[in-house]
Amino acid sequence: MSDISENNIFTRLKGLIKSGTKPGVEETEVSFMRREKIIVFAGAYIMAVSLWFIVNLSGSFSININVPIEPGNIPENMALTEELPEFVQVGVSGDGWQLLNLYNDPPVVVINIENREVNLFEQVRQRLSYLQGIDIAKVQPLLLSVDMEPRKSKKVPVKIPSEISFENRFGLVGSPSFSPDSITITGAESIIEEIDEWIVQDTLRLSGVRNDISMNISLNKNDGVIELSETEVTFTADVSEFTEGETTVYIRTRGLPRGQNVNYNPSSVTIKFDVPIEQFAAVEKVQPYEVYVPYSKIVEDSSGFVTPDIELKADQFELRLRSFQPKAVAYFTVLN
Question: With 139 labelled, which of 97, 204, 242, 332 sits at a CA distance of 20 to 30 A?
Fold first, then answer.
C-alpha cells in the first residue's frame, strides 16, 4: 500500500515538470495541472523578488532625489518677481529602505527668504534633519538668488474666453455674467502694473446648449508669483428658445430740411426677427424697430434708390434681426 501511494506522488510531481498530456487524461485535469504550474512559478518568483529586496535594501546607498520647495517667510511689504524652481536636486545616502520611502514621497521644503541670496544646502539640511540615518551630501543649486520688489495690490475685471454653440433655435438672452466680476491681484509692483484684466487661461467650450448655464471656473490661483483674492468665479448665462417675429414699419426721413418732403416706393419695410418665446407676446404689442433714411444719403445718391437703415428701439427685448424686404426703395422729393 505504501508503494502505491509513493508511486502516485512521484507520478504527480513528474507531471508538473514534464510537459504534455498522457493518453486518457481528461481535459479538466490537464487544465488544473497547468494552473498549478503557473501558481507554483508565480509564488516562487514573488518570493525570490521579495528576498532580493530584503537582502539588497538593507545595505547603504547613495541616490539623487528631487525635493519640492515652496517660498516662505517673505517680508510682508515685498514680493517675488520670479517664481522659485519647483524642485531642487538633493544627493542623499543612508539605509536602502529609508531612501526608498524618501524617494517615493519626498517632503516639501519651505524656503525661508529673508535675503536676496538663499543658501539652499543649509535650509534643505535643516528641514530634513528629522530623518534619522539620512545624510545630505549635496544640493543643486547650492545657492539661489531671488529678486524682490515692493508688494502691490490692484483690482481688475475677470475675462473668460468662451466658445459656446447652441441647439437649433436656442441662444443667449443678454450677456454672460461673472460673480464676482472682478478680483484683487497682489504681487511685485512691476508685474501688477502691467495687468489690466485677469484672463482665464482655459477657454470655456460648450456645445449643444439649450439650458441656462451656471458653472464655477477656476482662476488659476497658483499662477506664478501673483496672489489672487478668489480661487474661482461663477459663470452664468440665460438661454432661451427663440421663435420668429415679423413686423411692417413705414420709412421715415431723418435730417429733412424745412419745406421738403420725401416719398418712398414702397413706403414700408417688412422686418423678420428672432425673439425669445417668453418675450413674443410683449413684443407683439409694440413697434420694436424704426426704419429711416438719412437725408444726407439721398443728397449723395444718383441712382434713385436707397437702402433704409434699421434701428432697434425696444432694447428691453432680446431681438435679433434676420432680414428685411425690400433691400432698396425708390424715392422722390416733393417741394412744398
Answer: 97
